[in-house]
Amino acid sequence: MKKVAVVMGSASDLPLAKDALKTLAAFGVPHVARVLSAHRTPDEAAAFAKGAEADEIGVIIAFAGKAAHLAGAMAANSVVPVIGVPVCGKDLGGLDALLSTVQMPKGVPVATVGIDGAANAALLAVRMLALSDEELNQKLKLYVQKLAEQSAEADEAMQKEMEQL
User: Fold this and answer.
1) Same domain, 122 and 140
2) Residue 157, domain extent
3) What does the pLDDT average to over 68-88?
């Protein structure tokens, strides 16, 4: 199975990135985590992206706030799919990062999840890898089934509560 790379523009992104790392671990997906800045270590970030395919990385998840160039830098230097996670900042609530991540030029696609959407980024990576891995595909189907069961249980509980009103 290919790995998922979780890259952060800053070590301050780690608490959020842990949600993605835990989700990947729950599915048994091998992963690596790095701090690589598109601005402070551009050569290292580019080298990492350029070597991703040879390193058996199947998806890159990039966390970045403010200018949020990391996902675009990864996508510009690799054919490996990139998922951008805009990180909520104190100045603009993450809207700056969202717009920077989602507005890539033609030819440099970055799939983008919602602000602070670490778990969804990991689940999207799992879905991508599951296309060519039957065991992972089965784990994903069980996960989706469990979500549906939890929703049905919540509805049933609410219906019982509504009857008492």
Assistant:
1) no
2) 135-165
3) 97
